[in-house]
Queue: 2 jobs
Job 1
Amino acid sequence: MVLQPIFYILAGAIVWIIVFRRRGERVFNNPEMKKKIFITTLVIVYILQPGIAKSTLQLFNCEDFGPTGDSQYYLVEDTDIKCWEPRHVSWTLALGIPALIIWVIIPSVLLIYLVIRRKFTRSKAFVQHYSFIFERYHDKAFYW
């Protein structure tokens, strides 16, 4: 599930390339196409981010299922896996940590973008493209 958005973003970009080619428009160095791909990426991330964040955090969700005094923690999603043993650590390092970084950085970048662009959020072009993200936010609490 962590890699799912990458496949969707690539599929969206391929669809836009096909659309622009069929129209006879140039594909590379086309600001309109870049904008379409950016908005497609934004929508995909906006829709998938909560589920991916939840799945990523499940890699760290360990619980003690043993008798009292036994400090063996097991992964809640798969109780056959003991937490912080080599198998769990390898999955955590290979997928968990990078996914946490990505899914914390992407929303942070979007927040910074909104902070920087908040003065321009009333422009027609900005509202047309990004209103689905912030239309219900108030000016004093645009980030919440």
Job 2
Amino acid sequence: MTTGPETTMRTSPPTTGDLLERLRARRWRLTPQRRVVAEVLRGEHVHFTAEEVRRRAVAVMPEISQATVYNTLNDLVAMGELRVVSLERGPLRYDPNIEPHDHLRCVSCGRLVDVDVAGKDRLVLGEADRHGFAVLGVDLTFRGVCPACREPRRQAHRARRRGAPAADPGADRAVPGSPTPPA
């Protein structure tokens, strides 16, 4: 699916089956708890925080401990089977898609999706701009507003144009995690 002239949304990132297959190929001991953590990381565009992984794992296996979930995530990162995604705000997220890719993040709700960036291989950082660094890679995160968040903004805009008050006057300015202004 094309999201712009230079970005395409990834339609088939590695699935949990792929992660489990990779773990089996490594002969990693798949305890029931580790399997649950791997299964929680299934699906397309999965970018859960450690707390989200823990909550979902507990829903499947109530006796799983927080330490086991966190240790499993750390082990998978150390093995290169999970990527850590660090955004400018909020907790770290874990991405089972270890293929080269970048991200598109909704600035309103925080939704994060995998994207392939056309022309990324042509990005060059000049010698003077490297300041002696050995460049190891580039991670890009595009920011925007997803369709689900954009629709309430459109409705509020239409209501203002008609002179009618918007259902939620702050809906077009809301940022997740920010305090709600007093009424």
